[in-house]
Acyl-CoA dehydrogenase
Amino acid sequence: MPVFSLDPAQTAWCAELRALAADRLRPLVEKAEEVEPGHVNRPLVAELGRLGLLERLFTSGALDLCLMRESLAYACTEAETALALQGLGAHPVHAYGTPAQRDRWLPRVSEGSAVAAFALSEPGAGSDAAALSLTARTAGPGRWRLTGEKCWISNAPEADFYTVFARTTAEAGARGVTAFLVPADRPGLTGRALDMLSPHPIGALDFDAVPVTADDVLGDVDRGFRVAMGTLNLFRPSVGAFAVGMAQAALDATLAHTARRDAFGGKLRDLQTVAHQVAEMALRTEAARLMVYAAAAAYDENAPGVPKRAAMAKLLATETAQYVVDQAVQLHGARALCRGHLLEHLYREVRAPRIYEGASEVQRGIIAKELYTESYADVEAPE
């Protein structure tokens, strides 16, 4: 599949998704903001299920996931995020779960009646996933008790189940982590909402000797880091797609504004400084888009270097979106900071993707590690 352009069917599908996001999903977001802000928007999740988008999380490849996220983000960032969180929380079940686990949860996730969450971060282990301290203490053959805390978990404490990563072998780093599927109603599991700059709920989870068994393990015992990284390698390029969708929305708003805004005896676009700035915004957005598509295509083709490509795509796209949205605000002036303005919304939304699923600094570390591994695969690394 060519990675530098979309075929007509893909282009048409993206246009359809933008229209659906504006016409059917955005009204559900506006209603929830009036009635019950700060909670999981279950009607929105259910509508994503009715539209067949949640099911596509498990039947499509990485490129399709990117196209969905970019298209939804352009018209309704809340719908994009709801879709992405369902995928992030449930992908480990789809890819590593047992038949019983998949049969119980994936149909409900696909129809939008069950909300999923990915519980990796902790107060002392955000970007350093190998430093997890949530402990799974042995309680008999094939049985454990989870004790500790998770923090900054999207959809917590309102999700119906959590993909939880816990330490099963002490002092083993990444090799001693196991992934568990933990339903929200397990005894000893409680949560609380965190007051954060976010359009969706983010919370902390407390595990007080929460019982889990071998039937709850995702993948293999002590191999949960593989589950986490396999999930992140798929979703990191699509975080970049989310960022590209926001950047494109900001760019299009800027094109419209500068074309009609009177300034200094002409239109804003007539000022060379403004025109060049808009060109720079477009250049960076397109470069980020192409890198996202290339990383997704590499994942779908099982090509070499997927971790590096995924990290590059997320890094470039999220940093680009921050730049483009900031420049769009600057060119719009004070009106862009009025509550309810598209750019005011994007300005708040665009910051978090540079942190979650591995901060920009972590992505640079991954890229450097992969580069040196590739360069010195057959020789001793330099001093």
